[in-house]
Automatic annotation (TrEMBL), chains A, B, C:
The chain crosses the membrane at residues 25-58, 79-100, 112-133, 145-165, 177-198, 228-248, 260-281, 302-319, 325-345, 352-371. Gene3D superfamilies: NCX, central ion-binding region. Ca(+)/H(+) antiporter that extrudes calcium in exchange for external protons. It comes from the Bacteria. Keywords: Antiport, Calcium, Calcium transport, Ion transport, Membrane, Transmembrane, Transmembrane helix, Transport. The keyword Nucleotide-binding does not apply. Belongs to the Ca(2+):cation antiporter (CaCA) (TC 2.A.19) family. This is Ca(2+)/H(+) antiporter. NCBIfam families: cax. Residues 47-200, 226-369 form the Sodium/calcium exchanger membrane region domain. Its main location: membrane. It is a multi-pass membrane protein. It is found in: Endomembrane system.
Length: 372, 372, 372
């Protein structure tokens, strides 16, 4: 991963080729919607601000992700892996913090649920379907995928306990839910730290194969340029996330969506759009290991890093975010984890399995749409 | 599947052999119980009508299945497959429609649950046990079996959402449950149609091996004879199903059974008796792929075709059947899917695994027996 | 298993080696804590009696287990296997009976839950972690492990039905819960008996490999000495268990623990300490098959033998113990079974998988700690 020989500058192929160019599309989106989103907030605030901010966040999140990857690559596998693991979902974390500070704790939790479901069902399903339309059968490393399943199972355990506790104890549970959530968050962060030790140190060879494909997708930026891009994109995300959060209530009023639907489906899709396109591209190149890795790694970071960090950060913010998710969210995570696991079990995928994951996502979408 | 060379006329072997002959047994049952059931309805209506109709439906359902298979075979793999997929569970569908028209919505839903549990636990368990008593270890194609599991997982998702929704929202959910069920039914039917495209078109080679065994079981009927048998048997099923449904209340009063028990255990066993015997015969011939295929395909047809069709057909009938199943039914489907998946995971079966499935079925039977 | 040639007297190696000696440690514990526990009960009863009895039970349970194994070995594979299967968890059974007679039905059920969770998560997790720190990758027989999963799934079914039934029916269920539990218990015992037939008779060759490792761990006692040790240790367990149960209320008052926590975590750890150390030793010797076998066999014995026997024995005791576990316990068993199954699926283990199991155990520990 860190030997210079394995780095293939991909930009020429990636940017000047005749075919579909994802990076250029994202830059165009940014150039159009970022100024519009800013202008909308000041001159015509309301539901349009929400929509414009949502669209502008997609390329911003992508830029942050790319800059992080370039810097991580230059730092080498140890430090770089650590950086990737911490900043990989920085955009989600910033949006969630903005929502948390404005007291939208429910939307924050819904966006955590939505990001996990989006990765395990929508991203993975679309990638398997797209790849399956091109290749009749695609193989991947079952052991790596099942390891991701096991970690998600741990996350599911963590997210189901407070909900059950509340429904068993009723209002008497309120006092206990926050300390319980803090204790569970600490356990999750410890397991997350150990999982980094595993993938970056003791068992880094297992992940070596995966890195071969990544350089192709990485822009040829100098460290300085990447750092500037990272700073600029982060600043942009921070600003636009604030504006988006301010417009949440207008959007809910205008579209008739529920808070949960906004969090689970809309905000989560914004945060995952970049992973989405990358996973599909990998599947079309028959690199299913990478597609699975994107879906499971991103879910893992949300569940074992972003969620517990938000719980701990909520203490100084005075918001006391708990890990209590709704019944529907817990069932959703259980279903998402189960479906992705079932697909991963035989180490092969075909387009019908992609349809199946998307079908599960659609049914959950119906459910979250109707929930008030 | 459609090349004439592969067709082995099985009737001589199947009918004149010294051993156990399933077809003759079913014809005998029909000759005795069909007239008795009719007579009972008119001359001594009541609990005996229920019992006689129940027994008469078993060979009728079997005849319908056989005639469908013969016609499907002559139509070739494409159209024939479509026919098999649509009429494969026609008997269940007719019984359910009769019950639905008489306002027994609960019994209809219970019979859907029961048919799925019957296939995944009773049919598969009995087949694995029977095969396992003859062979110490039987192998099957794990990938095909797991693909069935994945589809059943989708069905489980569809069946669990309305129940959860109701228990979360209380009476306020009533208004929403029917539109939600319609939306979910449409998703299920789309996935079902795509799964037919998969098995009949894009990946039909995967199922080619399975067809080798089927001709042996198929009667040597001309298309004309098969069509007449199909029409006659369908008419018979329609009549007897009506009589059976009329006698449901008498049976419940006489035996002390609950509505759920009648649907889940009794009606479901009637509808599955034919699959049951075929799956066991396949297992005894060490064709475990076929036994698994019968169990999973039949469950899939019930969950992804019969159930959503009943929901949509309930609109013109003015009955508004929802996909809301009881907690116990949802748990039952979850347990059945999980148990069959666990058994399928290693691609091998032995008699203890059959006992395990039957044990799970027995425990669920106890539960449904006690539920009022 | 029963041929004398395969018996390797291990005592010299096991006891006189320079390294860590488990047997000597346990004997030392016994010599110190058994007299203290007895004295405490009579001279300074209260919370210290609880602690001392708890510690004294660990080596007593171990001695019972070792003596049982020696006698079983001399009896040969048939009768010996039967003896191992019936007395393997005799210590747990005795402690549970003592608690049941004193009317601590909740603690009994909690200790059943705790013993299963302890085996599937703590024992297996610690073994995988310990083995994984020594070997980067350890392989085991996936089929055998999954067979254990399937049996635990049956147990999960049995334990979840009465809880669901109660929450659906409310107080009206009370009348039905005991007969339902008896019916389910009978089914579990039948499956248990058949599973013995499977492992000792029809498929004993599958377990032959496992036996190779056991002689190394077995003390070189004559049948007479083993019988005397078994009688003495059993007597000791009976006495100390009575004293422990008498002190439960004092311990709950002193430590502020809940009844559930005492049962799930403390009593269960006492009963499993011996399995715990053996499984870790096996993992350190790279015999992961044995480590998995210890965890799954012990869980199976608790769920399919100890629990139903306690239900049936409660009839003459007039206590009417049901199989109704709390929501939290049912969720715990479901999570434990799911986690162990996910780890077993690929036939390989590494230290991170051990961490994952221990993380799930820790989260459940947090949950049971907070439940009043």
């Amino acid at each position: 991963m860190s030997t210079p020989a394995s780095v293939t500058p991909s930009s020429p192929e990636g940017e000047s080729q005749g075919g579909f160019n994802v990076d250029r599309l994202f830059l165009g989106l940014l150039a159009v919607f970022f100024p519009l989103a800013i202008a909308s907030h000041f001159f015509f605030p309301g539901v349009w601000t929400f929509v414009l901010c949502a669209v502008a966040l997609v390329p911003l999140a992508r830029l942050m992700g790319e800059a992080t990857e370039v810097i991580a690559h230059k730092l080498g596998s140890g430090l770089g892996g650590l950086m990737n693991a911490s900043f990989g979902n920085a955009a989600e974390l910033i949006i969630a913090l903005a929502a948390l500070r404005s007291g939208h704790g429910d939307v924050v939790k819904a966006s955590i649920t939505g990001a996990i479901l989006g990765n395990l069902l929508l991203v993975l399903g679309a990638a398997i379907l797209a790849g399956g339309l091109k290749y009749p059968k695609q193989k991947f490393n079952m052991t790596a995928a099942l390891s991701g399943s096991a970690i998600m199972f741990l996350a599911l355990t963590a997210m189901s306990i407070p909900d059950l506790f509340h429904s068993v104890r009723g209002p008497a549970a309120d006092r206990v839910l926050f300390p319980m959530s803090v204790a569970i968050s600490v356990i999750l962060l410890i397991v997350y730290a150990l999982s980094l030790l595993f993938s970056l140190r003791t068992h880094s060879h297992l992940y070596a194969g995966e890195a071969d494909g990544e350089p192709e997708e990485m822009p040829v930026w100098s460290t300085k340029k990447a750092t500037l891009v990272l700073l600029g994109a982060t600043l942009g995300v921070v600003v636009v996330a604030e504006f988006l959060v301010h417009a949440i209530e207008d959007a809910i009023a205008a579209f008739g969506f529920t808070h949960t639907f906004v969090g689970v489906i809309i905000i989560a899709i914004i945060g995952n759009a970049a992973e989405h396109s990358t996973a599909i591209l990998m599947a079309l190149k028959n690199k299913m290991d990478l597609a699975f890795n994107i879906a499971f790694e991103s879910s893992k970071q949300i569940a074992l890093f972003v969620a517990p960090v938000l719980v701990l950060v909520s203490i100084p913010l005075g918001q006391h975010l708990t890990l209590e998710f709704s019944h529907m969210e817990v069932l959703g995570i259980a279903i998402g984890t189960g479906a992705a696991t079932l697909i991963a079990l035989d180490g092969e995928s075909n387009w019908l399995e992609g349809v199946m994951l998307l079908g599960v996502y659609a049914i959950l979408g119906v459910a979250f749409f109707f929930i008030p």
